[in-house]
Amino acid sequence: MKVSFPHMGYSPIAFKWLLENIGHECIMPPEPSKKTLDLGVRYSPEFACIPFKILTGTYLEVVEAGAELILTSGGMGPCRAGYYWVMHQYLLEELGKDVKVMAFELPLCDLKDFWKKLRYLRKTGGVSAKEFVEKVKITWEKIKAIDDLEIRSHELRPLETKRGETTRKLDLALDMVDQANTSEQIEDARQEGLKLLNAMTLDKSRNPLKVGIIGEIYVVLEPAANHYLQIMLGEMGVQTDRSIYLSSYTRKNTIVNLEGDIFKMAQPYLNEAPIGGHGVNSIGETVLYAKHGFDGVVQLAPFACIPEIVAKSIIPSVSRDLDIPVLTMFIDEQTGKAGVQTRLEAFVDLMEYKREKKFSKEESLVI
Amino acid sequence: MAKIGIPRTLAYFSYYPFWETFFSQLGHEVVVSSPTSKAILDKGVKEAVNDACIPIKIYHGHVADLAGRVDFIFCPRMVSVRKYGDFGTETFCPKFLGLPDMVRLSMSELPPIIDVRVDLKQGRKAMDQVCQEIGRLLGNPEKEVESAQKKATAVQKKYDRLLQQEILPDEAMTMALTPGATPQSSQPVQPDLKIAVLGYPYTIYDHYLNVGLLSILRKENVKVYTQDMLRNKTMNKYGQTLPKNMFWYYSNRAVNATLYYLDRPDIDGIIHVTAFACGPDSMVDRLMEIETHRRSKLPFLSVAIDEHTAETGVRTRVEAFLDMLRYRRESL
Ligand code: SF4
Ligand code: SF4
């Protein structure tokens, strides 16, 4: 069957591999572009959040390319994302498209449904249960390798001496992961890729600003949706730590995962969890980044994103109490790259100024 | 004895009779904020985060209206009132969930806020604890609270029954709260048209917010049907005909009631009142529209309201819609 899925950051590499190795044809979702967005805006409800619109656009593109089945995630709320697939199915039907949107609800909520859908995928692909499990495991390895490489790139980019080198090396490294077919090969690709990145000429004398990236999952994970904000910051000489990676739920590879209960961190400010999306996380993560001595936090959210609005009304208090600057960026279809750049530059200036002030204060204390 | 301020919006339209009775039985004085007005709206716009939806802004305005003249603001955290949905996880809209914190952190000089958490997913029993918690806060003994709760529950039942008799909230509230009040229906006895007006109670019943939609309809001799006139059981049955339920209480009610009214042969049309920048409504509205067209031939009108909605604009659109319905009836 011709199967597709939403585009999220670098993850399509892994999902493509999975589909092709369980006997399906993968219709690769294109990286969201102006065309994707235009299509999405045209056929989505006016006030739908931007991830919804981009997905509408993506789905129309993959249907055009022949997709018969679109796999996505479900969710039990309380935010809109868990209802996306239902709406998308409605909208695609209204447009006369013959495609099925299949959502995997969290196994936690509906285990039977989850197995049923997996079985369907396996049967239509024609692989044995054992093979299937095997392939899923390898896919997971790929996702982890991809995340590791990306994390490293965000650490190194602010130190690069040749502008754009990190991005080029990362692409090479990701290609190697793309080619790998077994767990061993993936591990090799990961090691080789990290070596490539580490071998760049770096200016270690710099002491880059450190910024935490928080907010709603889709705009945080999809660089095309946030105008490649992390790369932009990196090239301005800022090190970024992102609160969400696809593999982060099970691993301790980011600051956020090192600490225990993010909801607890948020509790002094918002005494209710969850409120949907990443609303509570955003508050807790701001606290966390402040405690870890970060210079600032960027909150990324779709325009009119419900939980992030709740978070935004609360974050100023956190920012004041813990003395950490927070830049909130609401993203919609009108957001342009230049606008993002200008706001980031101003934010970087502010953080630098703060740092200088702090240092001079410390110095005067020594004297 | 304390003065308890209750904002006249959001859950007010659903549960005011309960809280009014409860607090007065305990010997406290209930102060309701003034009906929504330009002044309240302006205050709300000033106080709330600017990306919030209009009903949340208005809520801030009502809190500001009460601030100087009460001892407590009653702003319960409405989490859920039932176990519902595909995973039993239905809640109120996320903005309700964070409401007390939003209010507290974005407004200054507020009296203490009573922000008890109302989560009845585990059953109605949880309400006992909610009431006792308030009682403890206000210094009322347990026994007193118990009997106040009982009284309040009875009054609320009466209110719900009145709504089910197709009486609108304004009037049903007076009738439920003033013993001996005679019914004096605000609905026409011999309506020319019957229209299902669906949406959130705080968009449908707030006359200022929807620029007098209900009175426009009244003048045109239209009988109004809303989701609040239906029993849960009826709505839930219709909810099961969807691929998946939504996650939000008020949205589910609006959607499921739409499906029900589509099946009623005497209904002439559907009006959806939706708030500008409302997250859930971006889906609710399209879903209602698509289902209306799939399941019936009924005309569908969506009225979006925001702080700049002009009365004439709504009036013109609604009148045109009614003309169309009348024309349609004649040609059927
Ligand atoms: S979290 Fe925000 S972007 Fe995601 S579905 Fe909810 S409102 Fe939309
Ligand atoms: S349901 Fe819509 S209108 Fe109501 S509080 Fe939530 S976002 Fe606002």
UniProtKB/TrEMBL annotation, chain A:
PANTHER family: BIFUNCTIONAL PROTEIN [INCLUDES 2-HYDROXYACYL-COA DEHYDRATASE (N-TER) AND ITS ACTIVATOR DOMAIN (C_TERM), BIFUNCTIONAL PROTEIN [INCLUDES 2-HYDROXYACYL-COA DEHYDRATASE (N-TER) AND ITS ACTIVATOR DOMAIN (C_TERM)-RELATED. This is Uncharacterized. It comes from Syntrophomonas zehnderi OL-4.
TrEMBL record, chain B:
It comes from the Bacteria. Signal peptide: none annotated. Residues 3-230 form the DUF2229 domain. InterPro entries: CoA_activase_DUF2229, Dehydratase_Activator_Redct, FldB/FldC_alpha/beta. This is Uncharacterized.
